[in-house]
Design goal:
Strand content: 5-15%
Oligomer: single chain
Number of helices: 3
Number of domains: 1
Distance between the termini: 34 Å
Structural class: mainly alpha
Radius of gyration: 16 Å
Number of strands: 2
Length: about 80
Amino acid sequence: GILMLLFPRRWYIALVVTACIASTRVFVGAHYPSDTVAGFGLGCAFALACGLVFARLGFIFRPAPSGLPVRKASFRLIAPEK
């Protein structure tokens, strides 16, 4: 989910990788298909919630007019010294 927020133009790549990983979990018998779908939904919801909090704090994302978080053009992980 966070990769889809960070790279919105390439969301389909993250979705394909996620589907491949989820399908292998089902094929080996580790999870039911409903488990993987629920995990994907919860993961995306948590990533969106984190993105909204980060946008409100001004860290990595900024709020868009639609209310969704949008990645800033540039950001720093460490604040510059004053």
